[in-house]
């Protein structure tokens, strides 16, 4: 797939090389010319998405915010989609943006804001169905891999990693949430459409492989053969002890060698991902019980969900000195706990977004207060914003995704407004979200083309439009 260029004015400027003189930047911000590709160069177009953009834009009083929404919300469709029919079935490959590989996590998250529209647009519905089919192929190829190529002859940049690198695998970092996102997408598609055709024999094989992988990674008898080691100077790019991770005491939780940031875990039991796994296994159990009519497999899924949930309550909840009972981010089963959060999803902040908690649940509220305090080592305050960071980008960079999730899980209008103001103040004149930005200098940012963050920003504005429209009548 070729990389698309974004429109700045009469000339085409690659998104990865956007550098404008200050006077031109001011002019462009004043005019707010669309940064979307030309219609003829967009990878995919949805009538329902285009109609939604028009409907929402007309309500947004702040011209710059409306411009950002128009740029960001369709970014996944505009620039990352490769859709075709393969063997009579729709197939959708979704690159993450400036990396031309498909992450199981990112691909689901990138299309998630479009899900409520699929009954209004058959093309969009087929796109989602095609992504479900593609994700099944990926899981069957290797349930431990996090990112894939469509072209199996393509040589990965990470080919030297000491792990089982099969053709078609871009990266093989074992992350529990990757498989959860596969279930999340299929479940949501079915709940909206009631289309049972996605539950074919390959999907069934993939779900059984997911359950098997989860059980294996409980590591009750050290039965996992997964290892990952990379020659690197970064301590967060590879698990210690020859790629096997730090010691654990088996307790029912599922080991994850990596976080959603693709950074190695400190303690292998990553709590947000285990909570996500409980939700996913419960969804899978209902599908197999009510739709597929396989009570035996449904029971297996339900029992594992219950086991993991009990372990979370026993090992991952602790009394904080200042905030009462909160979730730890990672634990090891020996009693050691890591208190922090990472701006990716799943995160502790995102638990209300994922549906694991209601925003007003006591333990979530306590945890959220901790996350937005100086006691969280990855909550940063700067000249232009305050928000969650990630070890992935160092000690000084805030993630727009963290600010977005803070707004999406908030019940306080003032907090939501504050978050939108910070997002508007830190896009560095580009009209797009980035992976991260320096807390004191938004022009120092990482990733020009990060479709997940762009689409998530669109999801936030759409949520505010649907649930709290008066906020959009403000100037930010």
UniProtKB/TrEMBL annotation:
The signal peptide stretch is: 1-26
Highest taxon in the source lineage: Bacteria
Q: Which GO terms describe its biological process?
A: carbohydrate metabolic process
Q: Name it.
A: Meiotically up-regulated gene 157 (Mug157) protein
One Pfam annotation, family name? Answer: Glyco_hydro_125
Supply the SMART domains for this chain: DUF1237 (SM01149)
Please name the PANTHER family in this protein's record: MEIOTICALLY UP-REGULATED GENE 157 PROTEIN
Task: Enumerate the UniProt keywords alphabetically.
Answer: Signal
Q: Which InterPro entries match?
A: 6-hairpin_glycosidase_sf, 6hp_glycosidase-like_sf, GH125
Originating organism: Lutibacter maritimus
